User: Fold this.
Amino acid sequence: DAGITQSPRHKVTETGTPVTLRCHQTENHRYMYWYRQDPGHGLRLIHYSYGVKDTDKGEVSDGYSVSRSKTEDFLLTLESATSSQTSVYFCAIRDRAAEAFFGQGTRLTVV
Amino acid sequence: DQQVKQNSPSLSVQEGRISILNCDYTNSMFDYFLWYKKYPAEGPTFLISISSIKDKNEDGRFTVFLNKSAKHLSLHIVPSQPGDSAVYFCAASFGNEKLTFGTGTRLTIIP
Assistant:
């Protein structure tokens, strides 16, 4: 299995609070991604990174920010959580034009 | 704008028969295509991929076909087994960066 860990695995938070999800890899892969999975929408890209301090927006980036200060860590922050951000969040890592490996996911509930 | 589409939300197939999952894309710049399988409460796992320079790639029971002129790819599973019951996602990328996923097809294998 690819060395990729997401934390926390489950979180319940209140509307309006900031939340940070962490993705940690031990594979030294260049590319890291954050996706959210929702019924009827599949996997939608939130943000991705192509190197330390190099990030770009995906298709559903509003309300989210990311940071990558080290190769191994990619953080996703919900600046002020809303109920529409209740979802399952997946981190993925990738090395060049090859398959991406996914973490186990974080189930986030905003109440 | 959904660049990768899976128009069948679900598919049921008898055990032992062929399962065919379809995927269409709109961006002619895509040059690498992948299929993923996802069980509940787990991250997606990579199944098989194909480069745009090929039209077929085979790995055991799984074969992916690419028709660039039609912007269509398909995944064939032969023979289908009960453990193949899962949600299948197709994905596409150009260059080494973003992976864009479809909405998924839920495959159910009937014993």
